[in-house]
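Attaching the record inline, Q. Sequence:
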Amino acid sequence: MSVFRKHLPYLLTLLCFYAQSAWCFSVIDLQTTAKKEHKALKIKGLTIRQTLINLNPAINSWFLYAYRASKKSVVYHLENPQPTKQMITLSKKPDLYLEITKNGQMFACDITPERIAERVSQAEKSGESYIPLCDNRIYIRGHVKGRQSTKEMIAGFLRSYIWHGEEVTSLIKETLLKDKYLIDSETSTLKEVTLSSNVTGDLPPSCYEKCTNVENTINLQNTLDQQPQPLEPISAKIAENPEKIGLENNFLGISVKGFNGEQLEVGKWYQANLSEGVWVSAIKPSFIDKNLLTSYTDKVSSLDSVEERATATLIAFDLENFSLGYGIGTESPSVEWSDRSLAAEKSKRPGPDGIGTIKPLVGTGRIPPYLLTRMVATFAAGFKRNHSAFKWGPLSRINNGSHYGFIEHGVVLSKLQPNLATLIITQDDSIVMKTWAEEDNEALLGKIKHARQNGVPLVNGIDSKDIPIPGEFVKMWGEGNWSGSIDNKQRALRAGICLQKKDGRNFLIFGYFSSATPNAMARVFQSYSCDYALHLDMNALEHTYLGLYSRGDRPFKIEYLIKGMEVLDYDTSELTLARFLHFSDNRDFFYVYRKDE
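Structure, as predicted:
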């Protein structure tokens, strides 16, 4: 692909932005409620035109500012760090300022290119994806290159430049990478009293020498058991067994409270040391309640012998304490056609929504700095665009192949498509997981802050017997677009997410499946009483990444759900620099942060 062709969509977008021509179509035109302000003024005989677009006034987070004078043109993508508290407009005076109003007070923000151009350029060269202006009242989202793994670079090269490159990558997955990440934990009768280095955070300083024998350990455990405990998620429904079963804990990267740190009781939740309201659990599908394993066999296939014993590790976040956000990466997900779409060959448009780029908007691949001290965790989101459409089945024949949609800060970057599993964060930070319907465009779209679609549901509702209902296409490889090898072998490292309700509280549960088909994922989410579940990404630790952080007022510490997930993070002499948090990534992600305190 030539350099000119590569940058043509961006050049056309800029021309359209300034010309405001009727024939032009860009990501801005997908924003049906965008509010535009225009102002022209003369300074020293030079005509200057300004445009400010609030891309979604109901959310009030993202803006585009354009400046044009003679041959000089520039567009900045702005982010409002306090969307519920401050308003941003063009100055009413004959000057080049923005007016930022908060609590009845107005602040004039100088945004002339001459003043900030060098600052923006230096920040972008140094990898700073958020450039603060006017005492941090507003940020410019900077163009930076997000980090990617060697595997991604190779896969991208194969898909772009090698004939049948997609088949080559599938062959690699099925041979070199098959079951590479399989965790087959040893199982044994649970040891009721075990003191582990993972649990010293529970012990008072006076206990480190005294609590080394069984009697004192039991006394301490009894004392801890009598203390008020936070509400934990619903434990997994497992097969009846006269003895408790423990999994050898040689894979978990998160330290947990309580005893049995050397073993994890199958299906039980353990509190994470780093953060209250966060829980960890592990299970093998072979231990799931037989009533669940034999339910809905019309929707779920029998598990094979490998995925039956492959350990799944889950982490739950109490949404009473936390909010969820979503951010696109510097490159992914993109908005052009997926190669899987049958409609792409017939269309002259650059993408299914009529656009081939989100420019002049900017993906940062990083959490905004104003949330840094409230961060709890980040985890990798969904599939790249090329895998985000259907090649087979009913969904391949409608809506241009049903490309997965996504929204950030209330801005539609790719339209949400009917029949797809959708994770939604609303204006008031509520989390909804549902199968998007056509009527939702009228009833729900205007209330969305963030959204990400990723295929079809793994679990969709709970029946009258309190059994979670597997999704319609769980056992159907092509119709479900589950990815895998070219010969329909679906077992792979996978990640997914679900919602669980308990006693009026919601828990967001992330699941890491070391070697599984969608069938095993559905069974595990069923066992944890999830009422909706969807797939995230697969095939590598960096694609199924989850990092958990200590509170912002402590020395920074990061723990990983699974050992080895730090593959894309940097270790320095003082701390670990984490993807999505300290530097930009090319992939999209979700982030968990504490509610206002």
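The first helix runs from residue 3 to 19. Confidence is low (pLDDT under 50) at residues 1-10, 19-23, 157-169, 193-214.

More tomorrow.
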